[in-house]
From TrEMBL:
Name of the featured protein: SRPBCC domain-containing protein
Organism in which the protein naturally occurs: Xiashengella succiniciproducens
Gene3D superfamilies the record matches: 3.30.530.20
Lineage, opening ranks: Bacteria, Pseudomonadati, Bacteroidota, Bacteroidia, Marinilabiliales
Ranges where the START-like domain occurs: 4-128
Top-rank taxon: Bacteria
Length: 130
């Protein structure tokens, strides 16, 4: 069924600090290191560019060193859709995990998981976490 959505939650253990990770997921300069080719800010909107395409998101939730949610704007197909980054620190081991929550079309789920995996690999390299 076309257009059926599913929420996915992916967890990645990163060898970094919550503060350093939060900078990479919550700022234009941080996001441009791993998430998009170029990220600019237009008011409250982050303008994301990849190989000639452009999309816009607004940072709608921000909790310092904990989570960031971005809501897609100016795109009828994605209207009201969002994705979220959460930082979780294991109390026993001190491991820092990045949890990615995204809403995906069921028929595109595997492709999107693969895209997230590649993006997070880039993030890990940038953090020296591989």
């Amino acid at each position: 069924m076309a257009g059926q959505k599913e929420t996915i939650e992916l967890e990645y253990i990163l060898n970094t600090t919550p503060g350093l990770l939060f900078n990479r997921i919550s700022t234009a300069s941080g996001l441009s290191e791993w998430f998009a080719d170029e990220v600019n800010i237009d008011g409250k909107v982050f303008v994301l560019r990849w190989e000639g395409s452009e999309q816009r998101v607004e940072q709608t939730v921000r909790k310092e060193n904990k989570l960031v949610r971005y809501t897609w704007v100016d795109d009828e197909e994605l209207e009201g859709e969002w994705f979220e980054f959460r930082i979780n620190v294991d109390e026993l081991t001190g491991d820092v995990a990045l949890i990615v929550i995204d809403n995906v079309d069921v028929d595109e789920k595997d492709d999107l998981i693969e895209i997230w995996n590649r993006q997070i690999d880039t993030l890990k390299r940038g953090l020296g976490s591989i």
